[in-house]
């Protein structure tokens, strides 16, 4: 696998050039600067433990999903901590005029859910990792359905990708995007009417998946590996929120919390 060593010196102007030395295309660089400026108007951001973001080499970032806004916030956090994010995102987003073209230009990865093409998204992500890039996955697959907005059951894609490539899995917890842009109408959307919203993003240490290395990519391997990844994400979400998560984890098909080791889709 390519070492992904970043070229020395700034590639971009201003603050971005001082903190990010990883080459990227123009679309990503412009998007990061625009997001940074817009988020300063909407949010007061507390970025923590940015030094834990690996500055080079292939890496799989995994994060909790609480709002349609949080990919912008997580992407901004990573860009201004030295890595360009390549998200696995719903394929239908790529069909939206303008947005779809922008996502493709920014080298994001479409995920075709529930189809034979779904495996192709992991192959595309694997190709990104082979080039030493950073891939971002929301293991929950969608904005959480947990009534208290904690991380819910995870899908196995991140674990499978990690086992195939050996790339480290780094958890990110975040909170506050759901206050600025609430999901599914659970709170009224009132941008700017309550001032800027506090948003916290925190990065953790790589998840220890060493006991699963070299094992077959089967149910007995990917399920416990996924549960461990979700535990790491939940721990970061707890730090971001300053609260303790419930013992169980929400499983959407049961509409209830179940033991964490059973909460794998």
Automatic annotation (TrEMBL):
EC number, UniProt record: 2.3.1.51
- One of this protein's Pfam families, by short name? Acyltransferase
- Per the record, which residues fall in region Disordered? 244-265
According to the UniProt entry, its GO molecular function terms are:
1-acylglycerol-3-phosphate O-acyltransferase activity
* Catalytic class of the enzyme: transferase
Cleaved signal peptide residues: none
List the SUPFAM superfamilies hit by this protein, alphabetically.
Glycerol-3-phosphate (1)-acyltransferase (SSF69593)
Q: Which residues form the Phospholipid/glycerol acyltransferase domain?
A: 59-177
Top-level division of the source organism's lineage: Bacteria
Question: Which UniProt keywords are listed?
Answer: Acyltransferase, Transferase
CDD domains to which the protein is assigned, alphabetical: LPLAT_AGPAT-like (cd07989)
PANTHER family linked to this entry = 1-ACYL-SN-GLYCEROL-3-PHOSPHATE ACYLTRANSFERASE, POSSIBLE ACYLTRANSFERASE
Q: What is this protein called?
A: 1-acyl-sn-glycerol-3-phosphate acyltransferase
